[in-house]
Amino acid sequence: MADTGHGAAAFLGTLKTLGIDRIFTLIGDHLNEVLSQSAGAGMEIVHMRHEAAVVHAADAWARCTRRPALSLVTGGPGHTNSLTGLATANSNGTPLIAVSGAPAQLMRHRVVFQDIDQAAMAAPAAKWAHTVTSAAQIPFALGKAYAEASSGRMGVAHLTIPVDCFRSPATAAPRAPQAGPVLGVPGVAPLLRLLKSAKRPVVIGGSGLWWADAGVALREFLERSQLPYYDVTMARGLAPSLGYADPSLNRACVEVFRQADVVLVLGKRIDYRLAMGGARLFSPEAKFAQVDIHGPELGLNRELAVALCADVRQVLEALNAKLGKWTAPGWVPASTWSAELDEIAAAHAADKLIHPASFFAELRRSLPVDPLLSWDGGDFVHWGRCMLPANHPGGWLRLGPMATIGAALPNAIALQMNRPKQPVMMVTGDGSFGFYLAELDTAVRYKLPLVIVVGNDGGWGLERELQGELLGSTVACELRRTRYDQIARGFGCGGENITKLSQVGTALNRAFRSPVPYVLNVNVQGARSPFTQWQLDGRGKG
User: Fold this and answer.
1) In 3D, which of 40, 39, 47 has the Cα closest to residue 78?
2) What's residue 391's pLDDT?
3) How far apart are CA 457 and CA 227, in angstroms?
4) How far is the CA of 256 from the CAs of 228, 249, 515, in angstroms?
């Protein structure tokens, strides 16, 4: 075999073969050899301030580009710090190669510095995990990780690479991944018959539509069939919809789902967000059809009348070819949910301390641009998710099933890097913002003009509401009303403090004109969001 130099060169050369030219990282001793050669290998290096943020940013980059991304962290505590990011990306179904350095292989089990079984720790949080044992194995291991991460139900492939593997001579040529199997499109006639038999059909779209690049086929299908359509997660913004397919944030969809006699689920798990397909949200008599690339997902929580294990874009294209002139029956009543939210906002417009609904109503009216959105978790944020529209495909980044609060900042960093010419706005709460606050330094170093809206209600709002309602008192829920705009200025950002609705419009104009990240510290009252009320309403229900 041809000599490819040392393991570090083989690592970088294989990444280029795989089409990966950007590494999200945080420096550590185990990485010196590979990172010192990265510039010469044509790699873009994005170095951050916390290992979990490194993985969150790589996760977001993969979601934005629809291609596997790579994170690289040091071993020991660097690896353990990264595990939250691994679990988050894996639950999102993100194709991510997560590499951790490690002490030299020859020193294992000798009480050496930072020696732990990293692959074993990563395995429960990843789709696949492996420890490389020689420099010659690096190209194969990376190719295998790429294939594992990007095939079927996508997820995280973890590699632990000991530092001596980066330093040792490698005699294996970089190995490109082999193409995964192409799923054939099963017959769509049963699905079409089911849809045509429905009196009250509804379609729910999820992230699989985004990963399959199915936007064009989806829009044609919906335009021709006129089926009522709701979307969630990465499907948001792909096609015009009747709103969130999330009953906690779009009460208008609840009665629609309950009355539907046929439910078509496209690229979406029938999971907790859809009440596991149960009677809280759907009629027991409703017939379900599901299209998913991952076979074990089909029928997992709800019996299916039609189950298609296939690429969702190919299914939609096949449906479009056979649709003919059929148009679905129009039956969905006009939504009043937006009007209800606006009534809440108007009722609180004169409050001394800003109500979140009033703030987001004013923000919606005053936005000088139409930004991409990175959403955190928390009660303040959920008000915004109810009230702001999703207008851009791939421009509505959420935390995913792990609900990893704080991840919105590294997500926003990757989103802005991926789309440098589009404005990006991040929405977070004061609790969530504290997790990766030091990543403001990353945003400033890379000259990313993020607009960061911090709803500051001086506490962990969602837990405060749940505890107060269910337990009658609260514990460990209060925080100080810290001036995050002042902290941001210390990092080199712009920022200002908002205490009145009348300040919102001019503050937004200044924020979106700023060449540096800009933090708006919005002083709001704690107010139970529709999301939290839905959790309370559902206690003890199916």
Assistant:
1) 47
2) 96
3) 41
4) 9, 14, 45
Question: Tens of pLDDT along 96-127?
Answer: 999 999 999 876 766 677 789 999 999 999 99
SS3 for 430? helix
Q: Do domains 7-167 and 189-322 have the same CATH topology?
A: yes
What is the chain's alpha carbon radius of gyration, rounded to the nearest angstrom? Answer: 24
The sheet that has 22-25: what strands, in order across it? 44-47, 22-25, 69-73, 96-102, 156-162, 128-131
* pLDDT beyond 70 at 501: yes
* Helix-, strand-, coil-residue percentages of the chain, each rounded to 5: 45, 15, 40
Could you give the C-alpha distances from 122 to 125, 128, 137, in angstroms and in order?
Answer: 5, 9, 20
The label of the residue with tokens 């729910």 reads: 204
Both tokens of 420, joined, read 């440098």
pLDDT at 406 over 80: yes
CA 470 to chain centre: 30
Query: Which token pair is 360?
Result: 């987001």
In the block, residue with structure tokens 């709803």: 455
**Longest CA span, the chain:** 75
List, for residues 349-397, the tens digit of each pLDDT value: 999 999 999 999 999 999 999 999 999 999 999 999 999 999 999 999 9
The yes-or-no verdict on residue 249 having pLDDT over 80 is yes
CA–CA separation, 504 vs 358, rounded Å?
11
Q: Which residue has the tokens 């299914």?
A: 315
Q: So where are the chain's domains?
A: 7-167, 189-322, 337-537
454, 495 Cβ separation under 8 angstroms: no
What is each CA distance from 74 to 27, 41, 46, in whole angstroms? 7, 20, 15
DSSP state of 452: E
Give CA separation, 1 vs 169, 303, 426, in Å: 12, 53, 49
- Round to whole Å and give the CA distance between 297 and 257: 21
Residue 495 pairs in a beta bridge with: 519
pTM score: 0.94
Q: At what angle do helices 530-537 and 379-387 cross, to 10 degrees?
A: 110
pLDDT digits (tens, 9 = 90+) for 53-85: 999 999 999 999 999 999 999 999 999 999 999
Name the phi and psi angles at 266, rounded to 5.
-110, 110
Query: What are the tens digits of pLDDT across the range 269-289?
Result: 999 999 999 999 999 999 999
Q: What is the DSSP letter of 279?
A: T
In what order do the strands lie in the sheet containing 201-205? 229-231, 201-205, 262-266, 287-292, 306-309
Superfamily of domain 7-167: Thiamin diphosphate (ThDP)-binding fold, Pyr/PP domains (3.40.50.970)
Is 3.30.70.3270 the CATH number for 189-322? no
Architecture in CATH for domain 337-537: 3-Layer(aba) Sandwich (3.40)
- CA pair distance 417, 34, nearest whole angstrom: 23
Q: What is the DSSP letter of 348?
A: T
End-to-end Cα spacing for the chain:
60
